[in-house]
Amino acid sequence: MREFLTFKSGKFYFSEKYDTSQIESLLARATVLNETIADLPILPELAAQIQPDIMYSSIAGTAAIEGNPITGDDVKKIARGEEVEIYSKKDRQEIKNLIKAYHLLSGIAPAAEPFLLTEELICELHEIITRDVPDENNVPGKYRNGLVYVGDKAHGGVYIPPKIIEDIRNLMREFVVWLNSDEILRLNPFIRASLAHYYFCVIHPFWDGNGRTARLLEAILLQSANIKYVPRELSNYYYRNVDEYYNSFSKGIKLKNDATPFLKFCLEASVDSLARIKETIVYFIRKFSLRDFYLFERKKKILTARQCELLCLLLDNPVSFTIKELIDSRPFLILYSKVTTQTARRDLKKLVAGKLLLVAENNKYSLNFRVLG
């Protein structure tokens, strides 16, 4: 624990202590899931598909926490240079800034040694995030000098962080020294990143953009520790659970010198994000494996060309369907519009017998993604 006496706000503490009974099992699950994902074979085609989607949804998520309404799909359009004019100029500028900030995040490479945070990087991130976004007080990249209120009664109450610039400057210097100290560098990366997120928000050094900056700092520390995908995915969890996000921060403030509620929330977010990412990767691996398996069965003449094409079509369009829909509806028309109902039934019966398709009680068929186990 590091203690610091401010000029106007009394004693301020940076503490790495937490309740192990609430944290350790989550930390173990996050670590195991991360190692599992690291061991999964990720084809370049798959990585190229997953990473941009996570980035765009993450940008939308971190902005939405602060009230920005722009969706992930529209973030993608803005990234392509389109002006999506249904949104305000301010909202669009925030997204453009976050796109630039996430490109900076993409340049942070995993390293054997823990990433050392600097005030220069923090101010650079804030300058990028709030550049050209109108605010009567905020100066991009510059610490505030005045009173702000954090939170509200609905989320655990209002917190007043240190308010004079001398205290903020000194606290930010102490924050960086503490976060880069040997005892903190030895912590699990998930814990160190969450502590950085929490104590940055406790100081709240800027007039505007503190939340977005805090979440990017957390992401940088995780990415530099070779934790894949999660650094971007976390903001989506925070947005989906925004009430608990704010409440966990407020609980930590009330406990004093104990960030356990916020650490617990962040680790739950990491576990959920890792599980979602693992599920996505395994799903794509299954698709690649199944396509090869169908082609192998076709080569052995166990499947006809039409049956093989139906299975491959379902891989790309995983819908359930009836025998009538197979014959009359898209996307199956090209395969079954010119065959008899009897032929279609024979194909389905064979594919169900081979466990390649599943049939439900309502006589709807669907692809069996687990036929290979």
Task: Give structural notes.
This protein has 2 domains: 2-281, Orthogonal Bundle (Fic-like fold), CATH 1.10.3290.10; 303-367, Arc Repressor Mutant, subunit A (Orthogonal Bundle), CATH 1.10.10.10. Helix content is 61%, strand content 5%. It is built from 16 helices and 6 strands. It has helices at 20-39, 44-65, 72-79, 89-106, 119-130, 165-179, 182-185, 189-203, 210-224, 230-240, 242-255, 260-299, 305-316, 323-328, 333-336, 341-353; strands at 2-5, 11-14, 150-152, 157-159, 357-359, 365-367. A hairpin with a 5-residue loop joins strand 5 and strand 6 (365-367). It is elongated and about 85 Å long.
Write a concise keyword list for the protein shown above.
373 residues, mainly alpha, 2 domains, two-stranded antiparallel ribbon, 16 helices, 61% helix, 5% strand
Strand residue percentage: 5-15%
Could you name the CATH class of the largest domain? Mainly Alpha
Strand order of the largest sheet: 1-2
Cα radius of gyration in angstroms: 26 Å
pLDDT average, as an integer?
94
Return the domain count.
2
Work out the helix count.
Answer: 16
Gross morphology is: elongated
What structural category characterises the helix and strand content? mainly alpha
The count of DSSP E runs of length 2 or more, i.e. the number of strands, is: 6
Which quaternary structure do these chains form? single chain
Provide the CATH topology of the largest domain. Answer: Fic-like fold
CATH superfamily descriptor of the largest domain: Fido-like domain
